[in-house]
UniProtKB/TrEMBL annotation:
Protein name stated in the entry: Undecaprenyl-diphosphatase
Catalysed reactions, as listed in the record: di-trans,octa-cis-undecaprenyl diphosphate + H2O = di-trans,octa-cis-undecaprenyl phosphate + phosphate + H(+)
Topological type in the membrane: Multi-pass membrane protein
Key words, A-Z: Antibiotic resistance, Cell membrane, Cell shape, Cell wall biogenesis/degradation, Hydrolase, Membrane, Peptidoglycan synthesis, Transmembrane, Transmembrane helix
Signal peptide: none
Family note: Belongs to the UppP family.
Source species, domain of life: Bacteria
A single Gene Ontology CC term: plasma membrane
Catalytic activity, EC: 3.6.1.27
A molecular function (GO) term: undecaprenyl-diphosphatase activity
Subcellular locations according to the entry: Cell membrane
Length: 261
């Protein structure tokens, strides 16, 4: 195992963990960094492990709510998450192959970063909602879940789109962030299950097991930090700084593509 390989896996783990929950798109950043630094595809096993790391971060932060779901599988919260997951899963399964190709080429990520920034800026310019977590309706869950499915585009931020959707529905900022992260749980879990089902036919390079495990732990730790940070930012601050960041990033990518990158 070379130090360069280990550092690459640590780097990708941190990027995945941070950008999965910050409103700046994890897939978009992974595509960008692979192209910039000539990194190879991370492989199905490591991709699954990275998702598992971020899944653990959500479970740790929201353990009280998850424990409630486990103990009360027919509770209103469970039903809301099921309703929100249906459109997400439908979009993912129907268009998986098409969007995987878009993600592989990275040809659209510049425009998608710009779109993410526009959404974040627009929603921060709206009047603040007052509806609390207990006031979230099944219609809200359906709309937010549909927006989560639309984030299958590589540089459209899942967390940004779902938080924006909740805010547009008039949900209180802190509760909008909480529901956004909770509804990500079945989506990330589903991705892990689907990818795991494909692993039987995938070759296993045992020399990469330690780098992948370290990268997974980094993804979990970075994800935990990102969730805590985002809960504070959405509750008391503004996401306009993230909007400016992805606008600059999108414009830079489009400029590089224009000059033949």
């Amino acid at each position: 195992m070379s130090m360069l390989v280990l550092l690459e896996h640590i780097f990708l783990g941190i990027v995945q963990g941070l950008t999965e929950f910050l409103p700046i798109s994890s897939t978009g950043h992974l595509v960008l960094f692979r192209k910039l630094f000539g990194m190879q595809e991370v492989g199905l096993l490591f991709d699954t492990m990275l998702h598992f790391g971020t899944l653990i971060a959500v479970v740790i932060v929201f353990w009280p709510q998850i424990r409630h779901i486990v103990l009360h599988p027919f509770s209103r919260l469970t039903k809301l998450l099921v309703v929100g997951t249906i459109p997400t899963a439908s979009i993912g399964l129907l268009f998986e192959d098409y969007f995987e190709e878009i993600s592989r080429t990275g040809i659209t990520i510049g425009w998608e970063f710009l779109a993410t920034g526009a959404i974040l800026w627009a929603v921060e310019s709206m009047r603040r909602g007052e509806r609390k977590f207990d006031d979230i309706r099944y219609t809200d869950a359906l709309i937010i879940g549909t927006l989560q499915g639309a984030a299958i585009l590589p540089a459209i931020s899942r967390s940004g789109l779902t938080i924006a959707g909740a805010l547009m529905r008039g949900i209180d900022r802190a509760d909008a962030a909480r529901f956004s992260f909770l509804i990500s749980l079945p989506a990330i879990l589903g991705a892990c299950v689907l990818q795991s089902a494909k692993l039987a036919a995938a070759p296993l390079d045992t020399a990469l097991l330690i780098p992948m495990l370290v990268g997974t732990m980094c993804a979990g730790l970075a994800g935990y930090i990102a969730i805590r940070w985002m809960l504070k930012i959405v509750s008391t601050g503004s996401m306009k700084g993230f909007a400016v960041y992805v606008w600059v990033l999108g414009a830079l990518i489009l400029a590089l593509q224009f000059f033949g990158w």
